[in-house]
UniProtKB/TrEMBL annotation:
Biological process (GO), any one: tyrosine biosynthetic process
Name the record gives this protein: Prephenate/arogenate dehydrogenase domain-containing protein
Signal sequence coordinates: none
One Pfam family linked to the record: TYRAAT1_C
Annotated organism of origin: Eucalyptus grandis
Prephenate/arogenate dehydrogenase domain: residues covered: 15-272
Gene Ontology terms for molecular function: arogenate dehydrogenase (NADP+) activity; NAD+ binding; prephenate dehydrogenase (NAD+) activity; prephenate dehydrogenase (NADP+) activity
Record keywords, A-Z: Oxidoreductase
Family matches, as InterPro entries: NAD(P)-bd_dom_sf (IPR036291), PDH_N (IPR046826), Prephen_DH (IPR003099), TYRAAT1/2 (IPR045011), TYRAAT2_C (IPR059064)
Amino acid sequence: MSASVPASVSSSRSLKIGIVGFGTFSQFLAKTMIKQGHSLRATSRTDYSQLCADMGIAFFSDVAAFLGADNDVIMICTSILSLSQVLRSMPFTALKQPALFVDVLSVKEYARDTLLQVLPEDSDVLCTHPMFGPESGKHGWRDLNFMYERVRVRDEETCSSFLKIFEIEGCRMLEMSCTEHDELAAKSQFITHTIGRFLSEMDIESTPIDTKGFEALVQLRKNTESNSFDLFSGLYIHNRFAKQELKNLEFAFEKLKHKLLKRNDEEQEVNQ
């Protein structure tokens, strides 16, 4: 893993960036890309034509026309669960030139493998995970983590120019393999979402006597509920390391429960 950015990233150019899937996260990223002077176009199952017009983005309801629009970069911003279906439905024969395909999904091995299976061989592939969103990044991206792996890159200029978008904003650039990312994310992101879902199922609420620790738990619940259950499902289904982490949580709960019950029995014996 490296927190540095290659020297080649120091030079960049304005890019024509196509976005597949124009939901909340895509819109969040698009604002900064437009601010930096990049030209954006988008396609999505939902009709975002008016929103795109307001933002100065060309919207394509026809995916073939979108692919034929001479994009330098095509950024895949679908949900984890819909990635394969969306990619396999795209008519890549409409591409007029090779493009750099970039995904921004929260799971990386699955995204990498799917892209390599479906895309034309002459397409470059850059797997990324901007580890922030509209809430955590609303005051800027400085010092926020941006993970990436150059999976199959031949056009280094285009790749470097895309990475420069995040470097300019002050992101902490982390180059690592998709496998390393998923292993670490299972221990951090997936665990965080799981605990947040536990708290949601328990329906915890603020009380008049909250400690700072409990306030943090209430906020975790709120943050988790702002994300879809589809995202949480995707973090589990398509990250092979998440399965073990869920087992570890179950084991830890049973171990802790056993300790409490044992201490309770000991106290009762003393007080008899």
